[in-house]
Design a protein that fits this description.
CATH topology of the largest domain: Rossmann fold
Number of strands: 10
Mean pLDDT: 84
Order of helices and strands: HHEHHEEHHHHHEHEHEEHEHHEE
Structural class: alpha/beta
Distance between the termini: 43 Å
Helix content: 40-55%
Low-confidence stretches: none
CATH class of the largest domain: Alpha Beta
Strand content: 15-25%
Number of domains: 2
Largest sheet: 7 strands, mixed
Number of helices: 14
């Protein structure tokens, strides 16, 4: 009874109902909610605290950032189901929906702009960040030579150029025009003729269902706005039995990498990665630590980050 009263009290305020409707459709940070609803941060934070105390929202912390969303159990509750049928809920989607979409679009575009800007220098940056062992571990588990395999977030071709000689066809996918331009040039210099390129976001790939035998990616998922939805998209373009072999950052606390490397997530815990792939329909999921680290330096502030690397392999059911 006490819980019901706390929930009903929390949902009695129109601003909190507005936040619930927004968060029912997208996980957002406080600053992003400020942009969407046009209210001060302290006011929004107070409303979020009341919603959290009532158990209606949950918070995911990533370094100093906090992201709010509707817990799965709440999303299935009678309270939310009734709310979704109301005119108030529909009014929020109509009024705030476009601003939410713009916030999510801006997240992705900031990453794309960063990689467009540094495309010509990426090989040098990448070589300082992580070495050939990462590439070799990512490719080791894949590759019958009659497979069609994609490299998601191919950049200038670090994985792709090593992959192409081993398979029937290699496909480089990246949302940065400049990265693809440099990768094409690098492929041509090596006379690699079995590579196709697709300019596409990693969570909305311009390929038909079940197009691939295998998929690899190097240090890509922590740039995803929604890693789970991204992994689901990867599952969509894989054939049943198709294999994934990727490398990713371990969870870390180096906040400055958000600006330095356009990171959205500060790496991942193995349990997080496993959950993403299991929910996306993969099995035989294995997450192990590579005996190597990413290393990068912020020369302006003289900061150095040494971050562990995870190798993830999985098979689509």
């Amino acid at each position: 009874m006490a819980d019901d009263l706390r929930i009903l009290k929390a949902m009695a305020d129109p601003t909190r109902l507005r936040l619930l409707a927004i968060l029912d459709n997208e996980e957002l940070s406080v600053n992003e909610l400020v942009r969407v609803v046009g209210m001060g941060q302290s006011r929004i934070s107070r409303h979020l605290a009341l919603l959290k105390d009532a158990g209606l929202v949950s918070v995911r912390r990533d370094g100093t950032w906090a992201f709010y969303s509707i817990p799965e159990t709440v999303g299935r509750s009678g309270y939310m189901n009734s709310f979704r049928e109301s005119s108030d809920y529909k009014a929020v989607l109509t009024g705030d929906g476009p601003r939410v979409k713009q916030v999510i679009k801006d997240r992705a575009e900031s990453t794309q702009q960063y990689f467009d800007k540094i495309a010509e220098d990426w090989d040098d940056i990448r070589s300082e960040y992580y070495g050939l062992q990462v590439r070799n571990r990512a490719l080791a588990g894949l590759i019958p030579n009659d497979w069609v395999v994609a490299d998601i977030g191919c950049g200038t071709g670090f994985l792709l150029l090593a992959l192409a000689p081993l398979v029937k066809k290699a496909i480089g996918i990246d949302n940065s025009v400049e990265m693809i331009r440099v990768a094409r040039r690098n492929a041509a210099q090596r006379n690699l003729k079995n590579i196709d390129f697709i300019q596409s976001d990693m969570d909305k790939i311009k390929m038909k269902d079940g197009s691939l035998d295998g998929l690899t990616a190097s240090m890509v998922l922590h740039h995803a706005t929604d890693p789970l939805e991204t992994v689901k998209e990867w599952a969509r373009i894989l054939k049943p039995g198709g294999k994934v072999s990727i490398v990713e950052l371990e969870n870390h606390e180096h906040e400055w990498l958000r600006d330095e490397m356009a990171d959205i997530w500060l790496g991942f815990e193995p349990k997080q990665i496993t959950s993403f792939f299991r929910s996306a329909g993969f099995e035989k999921i294995k997450v192990e630590k590579v005996d190597d680290e990413c290393c990068t330096t912020d020369m302006g502030a003289r900061k150095t980050a040494n971050v562990g690397i995870l190798l993830i392999t999985a098979v689509k059911k």
